[in-house]
Amino acid sequence: MTTFLILAFCALILWGGSKALTHLHDNQAIWATGCSVPTIHKENDIVTLVNVFTVDPANQKKVVDMLVEATAKTMQHLPGFVSASIHKSLDGVRVVNYAQWRSRQDFEKMRNNPAAQKHMRPLMEIAEADFHLYEVAETVESKELAA
Known about the structure:
By secondary structure, the chain is of the alpha+beta class. The protein has helices at about 1-15, 60-75, 105-110, 115-125, 145, and strands at about 20-25, 30, 35-40, 45-55, 80-90, 95-100, 125-135. It folds into two domains: about 1-40, no CATH class; about 45-135, Alpha-Beta Plaits (2-Layer Sandwich), CATH 3.30.70.
């Protein structure tokens, strides 16, 4: 719960206090604007996919857009989906998908889902993927924010 409160506090500071936290749902903080923040904590009983895509810098934006579209149209509607956060490297050669799933079984079902495969096939043509599943081992928080 401490991690959740600190995330909420940080978000309020970063967003100038203009967002109001409404509730926690499926390991995500839900804001009045409808925006959610994935919660990272070792007590969460979820698995995390970290998928690092290596891309030609000319294709980085395209890969980001493809992942955002796949998540919006398909992934978020599949059973067990918790969250996805898409990151792009500053050097332009990588895109990271940090996705949370309720269980390893839910993740495997997604991988075998024809709609999910339809989105992933074109990605594999322009990016090299290196993905692994993780569980959170520990979180360390700023003592300044916890005070």
